[in-house]
């Protein structure tokens, strides 16, 4: 039972969360640099409209609040939370506003949510 408490504790879960966020950032960065894309992949360029940018602003706001709340609630890594917060916000800024793969994922998620049929 004590092992379960350890795996649910901040000492285990918060560093795991940070590693997962860093891996997501690195994956998105590599996708943007086209190192993880097949050579036969179709490439196209589009210009985002005002509605898309509103979605990105909303996504950044929600994600940054959630990210900062996770950092502030964690009872581990005291003394490093300012550095972790700054780095996470910078990574999130890059993901939401500059990374095409991540932005396409946000738009895809919003599209799926808006077009999901409601059942009663």
Q: Give the beta-strand count.
A: 0
Topology as H/E string? HHHHH
Instruction: Output the number of helix runs.
Output: 5
Largest beta sheet, briefly? none
Helix-and-strand structural type: mainly alpha
Low-confidence stretches: none
Strand content: under 5%
Helix content: over 70%
Structural summary, described in words:
With 120 residues, the chain is mainly α. It has a domain at 1-11 and 49-120. The protein is built from five helices and no strands. It has helices spanning 2-8, 10-32, 50-73, 81-97, 100-114. Helix 2 runs parallel beside helix 4 (81-97) and helix 3 packs antiparallel against helix 4 (81-97). The longest helix has 24 residues, at 50-73. The mean pLDDT is 87.
Summary?
With 120 residues, this protein is mainly alpha-helical.
